[in-house]
Amino acid sequence: MREVIRQALPAGEPHAEVFFYFSGHGAQIGAEFYYCGLTFDQSRPNETGMSHSELHDLLRPAEPALLVKVIDACFSGTLL
Known about the structure:
Layout: H1 2-8, E1 17-24, E2 26-29, E3 32-36, H2 45-48, E4 49-51, H3 52-59, E5 66-73
Parallel strand pairs: 1-5
Antiparallel strand pairs: 2-3, 3-4
């Protein structure tokens, strides 16, 4: 997931708008939401998934004026 986002939004190339859509499994571990990949393991969430915080770190360099995220996953709204 990380590499696909990096390729779609190369650093140093600002984007006016970014639309992020995720449909799949999600997990809440402590105070963090994780996007789960095919090999997600709750005992190693940072290695086998991607945290919501990390997603923001990957999107931030694109400097979008508008960021829209649609998350269709278990636990996606729990922390709201």
